[in-house]
Amino acid sequence: MYGPPMQRVLIVGASRGIGLGLVERHLADGWEVHATTRDGTSPTGSDVVAHRLDVTDATHLEAMIGALDQPFDRIIHNAGIMRGSRAEIMEVNAEAPIRVLQALLDAGLLVEGGAVAIMTSQMGARRGRTGSLGDYGDSKAALNDEFRTRADSWRDAGAIAVVIHPGWVRTDMGGSNASISVAESAAGITRLLDGLTSSQHGQFLTWDGRQHPW
Ligand SMILES: NC(=O)c1ccc[n+]([C@@H]2O[C@H](COP(=O)([O-])OP(=O)(O)OC[C@H]3O[C@@H](n4cnc5c(N)ncnc54)[C@H](OP(=O)(O)O)[C@@H]3O)[C@@H](O)[C@H]2O)c1
């Protein structure tokens, strides 16, 4: 007897932190996991299909897409940075997620009705303010703005897409005083994506399933 086909997920930025937690969660849940790292090595071993992708490198993106021949049920863009020049932070956090996901959608690499999730941050929520949120906050606010601009066309492309605040998480970025573990954040994000419906398309959600104000 054969069971239903395995669901397939692509996790972008999976070498450590929340991305690695999402890899481990999806493996535990029985998914076929594709994971990207900057050097192309698998973060866990042979249980994952690894792809080389520095999200700022268009040739990596083109090569990865050329090597993919089946669409994913779920794509999660997790890669992000907090340190570096303003230009670097804007490129990795705001420009790359949109460029990577647009290219994957254009290549037909998401199933109809598949989920797309981008890791944003509560620090990118303007809540009506107009001043600077700092380089990191500004980058996530710019990501959120462009996500909202593309939401209609991504729906037309068959995606159910959301941006997610993963919580304040104990990672290299979040630091050891953060409030939740990688496993808690990854379990919450996975639970929310498992239950995602088309009525949630275009929303800003938190790791524990609440709507976040823009
Ligand atoms: N931790 C928190 O409390 C928190 C809160 C709000 C939002 N977030 C967001 O959640 C996401 C994950 O955060 P984290 O805490 O897990 O961070 P992290 O521990 O610093 O890990 C960042 C990940 O992004 C990857 N990455 C960075 N630049 C990249 C590039 N140019 N190309 C490809 N991959 C790149 C890193 O790969 P390398 O190992 O190669 O550097 C690593 O896998 C980020 O988008 C972050 O902004 C985190």
Largest sheet: 7 strands, parallel
Shape: globular
Strand content: 15-25%
Number of domains: 1
List the secondary-structure elements in sequence, H or E: EHEEHEHEHEHE
Bound molecules: NADP nicotinamide-adenine-dinucleotide phosphate
Average per-residue pLDDT, rounded, comes to: 97
The CATH fourth-level homologous superfamily: NAD(P)-binding Rossmann-like Domain
Structural class label: alpha/beta
Describe the strand arrangement of the main beta sheet, using strand numbers.
3-2-1-4-5-6-7
CATH third-level topology: Rossmann fold
Which CATH architecture would you pick?
A: 3-Layer(aba) Sandwich
Indicate the percent of residues in helices: 25-40%
- Using the CA coordinates, give the radius of gyration: 16 Å
CA distance, first residue to last residue: 48 Å
Count of alpha and pi helical runs: 5
Uncertain segments are: none
- What would CATH call the class? Alpha Beta
By oligomeric state, this entry counts as single chain
Give the strand tally. Answer: 7
Give the tags:
7-stranded parallel β-sheet, 214 residues
Word description of this protein:
Helix 1 (17-28) crosses helix 5 and helix 3 (86-106) packs parallel to helix 4. This protein starts with 7 loop residues before the first strand and ends in an 8-residue tail after the last strand. The longest helix has 23 residues, at 134-156. With 214 residues, the protein is of the alpha/beta class. The protein is globular, with a radius of gyration of 16 Å. It has helices at residues 17-28, 58-67, 86-106, 134-156, 182-194; strands at residues 8-12, 32-37, 49-52, 72-77, 110-119, 160-165, 204-206. It has a single domain (8-206), classed as NAD(P)-binding Rossmann-like Domain (Rossmann fold, 3-Layer(aba) Sandwich). Strands 3-2-1-4-5-6-7 form a 7-stranded parallel β-sheet, with helices on both faces. It has 5 helices and 7 strands; from the N terminus they run βαββαβαβαβαβ. Strand 6 (160-165), helix 5 (182-194) and strand 7 form a beta-alpha-beta unit. The chain binds NADP nicotinamide-adenine-dinucleotide phosphate. The site of NADP nicotinamide-adenine-dinucleotide phosphate has 27 residues, from helix 1.
